[in-house]
Design goal:
The complex is a heterotetramer, with 2 copies of chain A and 2 copies of chain B.
Chain A: E1 3-5, H1 6-20, E2 24-28, H2 54-58, E3 63-65, H3 70-82, E4 86-93, H4 101-108, H5 111-114, E5 124-129, H6 144-149, E6 154-156, H7 161-173, E7 178-183, E8 190-192, E9 206-209, E10 214-218, H8 221-235, E11 240-244, E12 247-249, H9 253-263, E13 266-269, H10 278-289, E14 299-301, H11 312-318, H12 322-333
Parallel strand pairs in A: 2-3, 2-4, 4-5, 5-7, 6-7, 10-11, 10-13, 13-14
Antiparallel strand pairs in A: 1-8, 6-12, 9-11
Chain B: H1 5-30, H2 45-52, E1 60-62, H3 68-73, H4 78-85, H5 119-132, E2 139-144, H6 151-162, E3 167-173, E4 176-177, E5 180-181, H7 182-185, H8 190-196, E6 201-205, H9 209-224, E7 230-235, H10 255-263, H11 265-275, H12 281-304, H13 310-313
Parallel strand pairs in B: 1-2, 2-3, 3-7, 6-7
Antiparallel strand pairs in B: 4-5
Helix pairs in contact in B: 1-2, 1-11, 1-12, 2-9, 4-12, 5-6
The chains are: A alpha/beta, B alpha/beta.
The complex binds thiamine diphosphate (2 copies) and magnesium ion (2 copies).
One magnesium ion (MG) is lined by residues 144-146, 174, 176-177 of chain D.
Chain lengths: 336, 321, 336, 321
């Protein structure tokens, strides 16, 4: 299978869907780049190049640059979705949600319910998240727990190029508002990605390792770290299942509960802030619904309750890594 | 005033329907039958109906917390609206939305909105759809004077201008945002702001249906011709409190009574059309009687309608989950 | 002790602090009411009358009405706090956070960390939350889990008039940004409230019932329901401890863990949406740190994953009530 | 031009400090020594220094993602800034903030800001403090042309007007927001917008320190006199990419080279003061040499400074928790 980057996989998914359905349009700050400027068109293709090439192929009617006014254009994307288009709008960094969250959580997310089922809002909001880029407190947050909290939103966290393409195609074809989280550190990761279109259903977890001693649930960039940890654990004679839920809303509870029923031990790895997080969410699920299988305390591996620091010296300590996962899983196997 | 009779009769009927609807909601609210926060549009009818008198099935509007009038003017079913306000299963939104969230996308009504400034961004999207699909459609955001200070509204001016969208921003300036006077809260002027964003604008007497109708004509034409957004600053008043229960102590002594007496939009309409010999009083009285009956029936139907059930609680969150 | 309403308790706390410290100012939409209008000044005193009377006593320099522009005035409150005042700003309904969250979570909350400790931001954001008012999807949310998620914020949820006064005084004297959640259904509840000033420290839970069979942790309005449930349970021979953490950030983990160590059973009652909620957060705490004490699964009592419905018929089903708490606690006592 | 020598020397020193600082950061970034997103201010010095030349200890500024120039102009220590950009423990923010969050409240510098439009609301608050405490202080928000479209900025215009705050909004229009031209993204005009909100304004040649200085004088006087906010639309250019790493393919052929050649603010300053006989070239050269040395030393100090440690990770989140 051809190797592609996470960035290419996303680009390819969007381009393919644009070819397939003329209602799919793209918008965001510098998603082409160069609007009104004397130099190159498509000068940026997004701040890290994810939408590069769409403008030359699809033109200004389908690839819209925007002024810096996230409420207006994310809201416009929601309004366009509710009236017949299928917009893919970019919230450049998820950290910027604070200037436009209303249009996402009170408008797009609630249309269907508030309007008694008489609305469809096929909206995709692409957004960059995560630490590791030395981008400091306002450009490094995860925040997917906040979106997961909101009924009416679907939340997608691709952990690999393969996932990125299949989940993006699903997101665009989906009739509900989807927030699609792209980890900035993963853009250059490569992996096998088929050329043809394929979808990955929401709410179906992927088991990237299978084992019987401990279940590790991890999200986004943390899946790779969990896999590394599982490989290390294996060398120590501990066999771990790694579960990548791929979407936090809907969540594949069954896959997690089934695995814990087998292993009796759970580690959750979440890059988001620890309070009211996905780590907590999964811990709740298991402590409530698979308690009798548990042989040991649940362990969560998260950053501390602090903003993301700038200095690489601190940021490297902030982000959970394989060593902490190994430590947690190992400690659990001492129980039961 | 060159208008055919049917148009005039329809317009009057629409305005009277709003008035009776709101008066009845006011009465029923006082008896405790209607739950929640309810913001009434009585007094402002000429705006909703004057604007919507130009709109058709291609066109979309976004409303505010004070949405009943816009809904009726855009063609939503008044009985289904009443049921919604009563929280009944047969309501336009199955009882899930209530007064602040009445919507009927099939009628081009994108929803009342509980968030001040919520509508303008959405309406830019409806306009984008119309522009992209070349339907010739126009998108109208109704905004209060208070809502005109919200950043989401101001951003939308710019986006509509930069993307050259077929949008009309109708600033319904009833002088107050809750208890706060627009004379205090609005720095500069509505028209000055429009100019600042490169948008044409007009100031409109919102007590006069015909003034609203004429100003909207120009804006709609501009939008349909692909010449971008317009702002209309419509001056009018509301008769009831900000929401039901508001004692309106912030208003001037006799302010509402005087406006009701002198500037009521229904009276102005009646005077104009009868003086011009276009319609006569008995015809207009006839409409009022019909509407009164229809709204009475709507209230009866609403009170008789079933409540939603436990199964309804968890449906309609997603298309598929 | 004098009986006062929750509303009066908050009003009294603010007024007292304004008398004590001239740097304390109040701002929000119609916090006085009637700015520029021909009629009464102090016409509203806030949409439900909580700030009524402050304007006549403290005047327009200290009780500021604002245009409807939450980003501007909540941000201004943050900026004023960072430069020497102690503002109490009102976000009328917490549902409106979506138009101004940036100023709260990226600015006020992060100043201290981003600026290396060289900032103090003594800001109080008062906000109304919760269902039960037939106020529908955009005026009934809880959302405190979202604020609890953010490092740098303190989150306060008074459950009674007594708590409301003491926690508000603490909030105003506190040097960190505090989000103070007032449940709209509680405003008319009465309780004993001393006339004099007193503070309730943050991060200290209140045990409103003490028992040995089950621990019930509840927040805000849910504390009253938990107490009712405990009283019912008692008649059935089940003795419950009810814990009101009073603040979710900081959280009194110790009180919860100590109680679970004794009872071995935990019910968490949270009015917020269930995903990534406080229910999940407390479940995580206990499943990770008091696992060995647990005799039964953790049970959470929350609304379903839906927006808040308008119709009273639905809203009454939506909000968790005493019966569901009793059911959960009773089920747990069948274990272990 | 009636300025005393010390003032001119100080102003030139400040501008040159910014230029050297940015040039060195540009160079060091290219070697990989500096982490993260870095947005350089080179080319825009006359704006920061011209505005801040009127400000004193009572006054507060809020900056943007392109904040180094504002920091230096308001008196932040350049060495501590360099350490911050290097992520060192001795940085102005202990290495926790980095380029986008440099702040020094003790100097009236409320912070660079990673959020476009983040500063204007905050500066309304600083102005409120000044007004309430009657310090006579002025509060200045620097905003880019792109940031001028953000709702938070537009709301702040209105709040500053309605509350009559001593604020100056300085729109630094360098023609681009990332790759997007302000000619495209800004509907209407900056001055038209100011007028729309009832604010006085001026258009200012941002290549000319003296033009900025003069325009600011009026605005500061207005603010200190209690006459409310002013907007300055300052036109200028940036020499480097939006952030380090940007190839600037969206700019015109030779655009930057021409502007560097013809409109460089340091050159304009030098020409004006030497032609007027106020300062001579050797003096100015002397300043440049001193500054170059100081910035070299700052880089050396930054590179030698210790990194923050594990214990630092969790401090400074709260005053008390
Ligand atoms: C974002 C937001 N802020 C505040 C409110 C509370 N609120 C509801 S209506 C209203 C006043 C609106 O005034 P205006 O826009 O003039 O409309 P009117 O009520 O006069 O029709 C306010 C402050 C809200 N619903 N949403
Ligand atoms: C709310 C928000 N949206 C988008 C961005 C990404 N961003 C950072 S700088 C920038 C362009 C800003 O342009 P302008 O205001 O003109 O300032 P300049 O870079 O030209 O100094 C953008 C879009 C951001 N940081 N914050
Ligand atoms: Mg109004
Ligand atoms: Mg710019």
């Amino acid at each position: 299978m051809p190797k592609k980057t996470y960035r290419q996989a996303i680009n390819e998914a969007i381009a393919g869907e644009m070819r397939r359905d003329h209602r799919v349009i793209v918008m965001g700050e510098d998603n082409a780049g160069g609007a009104g400027a004397p130099g190159e068109n498509d000068a940026w293709g997004g701040v890290l190049g994810v939408t590069k090439g769409l403008f030359p192929e699809f033109g200004p009617e389908r690839v819209l640059d925007t002024p810096i006014s996230e409420s207006a254009f994310i809201g416009a994307a929601a309004g366009a979705a509710a009236t017949g288009l299928r917009p893919v709008a970019e919230l450049m960094f998820v950290d910027f949600m604070g200037v436009c969250f209303d249009q996402i959580f009170n408008q797009a997310a609630k249309f269907r319910y508030m309007f008694g089922g008489h609305a469809v809002t096929p909206l995709v909001i692409r957004t960059m998240y995560g630490a590791g880029f030395r981008a400091a407190s306002q450009h490094s947050q995860c925040l997917y727990p906040v979106f997961t909290h909101i009924p009416g939103l679907k939340v997608v966290l691709p952990s690999s190029p393969y996932e990125a393409k299949g989940l993006m195609i699903q997101a665009i074809r989906d009739d509900d508002p989807v927030v699609f989280f792209e980890h900035k550190v993963l853009y250059d990761e490569t992996g096998d990605v088929p050329d043809e279109a394929y979808t990955i259903p929401f709410g179906e977890a992927n088991l990237t390792r299978e084992g019987k001693d401990v279940t590790i649930v991890a999200f986004g960039r943390m899946v790779g770290f969990a896999n590394q940890a599982a490989d290390t654990l294996k060398r120590d004679g501990i066999s771990a299942t790694v579960i990548d839920p791929r979407t936090t809303s809907p969540l594949d509870s069954e896959a997690i509960l089934d695995s814990v029923a087998e292993t009796g031990r759970l580690v959750v790895v979440d890059e988001a802030h620890p309070r009211c997080s996905m780590a907590a969410d999964i811990a709740r699920l298991v402590a409530e619904e698979a308690f009798s299988s548990l042989k040991a305390p649940i362990r969560t591996v998260t950053p501390p309750h602090t903003p993301v620091p700038f200095s690489p010296a601190l940021e490297d300590l902030y982000v959970p890594g394989p060593a902490r996962i190994v430590e947690a899983a190992t400690a659990l196997t001492k129980h039961g | 005033m060159q208008h055919n009779r049917d148009f005039l009769l329809d317009s009057y009927r629409s305005m009277v329907t709003i008035r009776r609807f709101e008066d009845r909601v006011h009465e029923e609210f006082a008896t405790g039958k209607i739950p929640g926060f309810v913001h009434l549009y009585a007094g402002e009818e000429a705006s909703a109906v004057g604007v919507c008198s130009h709109l058709d099935a291609r066109d979309v509007i976004a409303s505010t917390h004070r949405g009943h009038g816009h809904c009726i003017a855009k063609g939503c079913d008044a009985t289904a609206m009443m049921k919604e306000i009563y929280g009944r299963r047969g309501g336009l939104c199955g009882g899930k939305g209530g007064s602040m969230h009445i919507a009927d996308l099939s009628k081009g009504m994108m929803g009342a909105n509980g968030i001040v400034g919520g509508g303008p961004p959405l309406i830019c999207g409806a306009a984008l759809t119309a522009k992209y699909l070349k339907t010739g459609g126009v998108a109208v955001a109704f905004v209060g004077d208070g809502g005109s200070n919200q950043g989401t509204t101001l951003e939308s001016y710019n986006l509509a201008r930069v993307w050259n969208l077929p949008v009309i921003f109708v600033i319904e300036d009833n002088g107050y945002a809750e208890a706060t006077a627009s004379a205090w809260s609005v720095g500069g002027t509505q028209r000055g702001r429009a100019a600042g964003f490169g948008m044409p604008s007009a100031e409109v007497d919102g007590f006069d249906f015909f003034a609203v109708h004429d100003a909207t004509a120009e804006a709609v034409q501009r939008a349909r011709a692909g010449d971008g957004p317009t702002l209309l600053h419509v001056k009018l008043t509301r008769y009831y409190g900000h929401f039901e229960g508001d004692a309106m102590t912030y208003r001037g002594q006799g302010e509402v009574a005087r406006l009701r007496q002198e500037s009521d939009c229904l009276k102005v309409f009646r005077r104009k059309v009868t003086e011009a010999g276009l319609l006569d009083d008995p015809e207009l009285d006839g409409i009022e009687a019909e509407v009164t009956e229809a709204i009475d029936a709507a209230v009866r139907d609403a009170e008789a309608d079933a409540l939603p059930t436990a199964a309804d609680l968890v449906t309609n969150v997603y298309d598929r989950y």
